[in-house]
Amino acid sequence: MPDIREEFEDRFPAPEGIEWRNTDYFPVQTENVHVYVALAGVAARYSAMWEAWQASRAALKMELPDQQPFWEYYEDVEGGTFNWSKYLTAVTEALQQAGIEVVK
């Protein structure tokens, strides 16, 4: 699975003259102060896009339903069995309630 920053840069390639440095996007060093100032503005806007992308991905986190209610115990099956069908239905419903589209 690609890391979140790779996904972001695949969708929104970094502008020319902007690079990632440990924690954020910064302009590439240049001798021309006017170019550097312009690139600083571009870097700030691109960093704001990166922050929005991170926030949008964080909003996709959700807690899955507890598995315990989906264990079914029978006298002839030692330890019981797990009802995957009912659990997947519950997970699908939880995702849809969170506003996430589920494609089957």
Written overview of the protein:
The chain is α+β, with helices and mostly antiparallel strands. Helix content is 46%, strand content 17%. It contains 3 helices and 4 strands; from the N terminus they run H-E-E-H-E-E-H. Strands 1-2 form a two-stranded antiparallel ribbon. Strand 1 (18-21) and strand 2 form a beta hairpin. The longest helix has 26 residues, at 33-58. It is rod-shaped.
Q: Give me the strand/helix succession.
A: HEEHEEH
The residue-averaged pLDDT reads 86
Our estimate of the beta-strand percent is 15-25%
Which structural class matches the secondary elements? alpha+beta
Strand order of the largest sheet: 1-2
Summarize this entry quickly.
Helices cover 46% and strands 17% of the residues. With 104 residues, the chain is α+β, with helices and mostly antiparallel strands. The two termini are 20 Å apart.
Main attributes of the structure:
alpha+beta; 3 helices; 4 strands
Element layout with pairings:
Elements lengths: L3 H8 L6 E4 L2 E4 L5 H26 L12 E4 L2 E6 L1 H14 L7
Antiparallel strand pairs: 1-2, 3-4
